[in-house]
Design a protein that fits this description.
about 210 residues, alpha/beta, Rossmann fold, 7-stranded mixed β-sheet, 7 helices, globular
Length: about 210
């Protein structure tokens, strides 16, 4: 939790309490339904919560922004972002029902009002959103093709609507089709922990 306070020092008491509750909730649910590797649960705040919040360093979502989290798993990056941006609306989808159950139980336990979770494949999601977010779900090209239909025309943010996804490692081959429009952000520019050395956020306006 110190990590979250370090990089996000202006949280409200409600937000702090919600972030603090995540560890025990994920620890408890992970024993029933494995959504985070058992040996990695101790790194929940660094590897999952803070990593998710890197998207907030790319764009500060305006009040009223709608965001779709594709392939959310147990709720990443959607749940940490929903805590950070209580005035934005988040919809989290995943094709695996038991993962959606974990995310739903966690978000209910911390009383997140701006979030809904659906057991759904992205191909089945028809609604429009300002932004789509994801964390290493599939190759960029495949993801762009699937979510283009979900991007709203109405603009309310500092950057044009589109996709922001969290990726690791070498991305040259993945972004080749989008090299003229995609922007790559080195997460190590924002967070100094060793884990983030190879982590990136990729923004593609759609």
């Amino acid at each position: 939790m110190e990590l979250i306070n370090k990089y996000f020092p202006n949280l409200t008491s409600t937000q702090k309490s919600q972030f603090e509750s995540l560890y025990n909730l994920y620890l408890e649910w992970n024993e029933k339904i494995n959504v985070i590797s058992r040996k990695d649960i101790v790194n929940l705040y660094e590897h999952h919560v803070l990593h998710s919040l890197a998207i907030a360093e790319v764009l500060n979502f305006q009040s009223g922004t709608t965001i779709l989290d594709v392939g959310t798993g147990g709720g990443f990056p959607g749940i940490p972002l929903a805590i950070l941006f209580p005035e934005s609306k988040f919809v989290l989808i995943d094709s695996i029902g038991k993962k959606i159950k974990v995310g739903t139980e966690v978000s209910n336990a911390i009383d997140l009002k701006n979030i809904s979770l659906k057991h759904l494949r992205v191909q089945e999601e028809k609604d429009k959103y300002d932004f789509v977010v994801s964390r290493a779900v599939m190759p960029l090209d495949d993801l762009v093709k699937l979510v283009k239909k979900n991007i709203s025309k109405k603009q309310i943010n500092a950057m044009p609507n589109g996709l922001i996804c969290l990726k690791g490692g070498e991305l040259h081959h993945e972004i080749i089709s989008y090299k003229n429009i995609a922007q790559i952000y080195e997460i190590s520019d924002y967070f100094q922990e060793e884990f983030f050395k190879t982590k990136k956020a990729v923004y593609v306006p759609l």
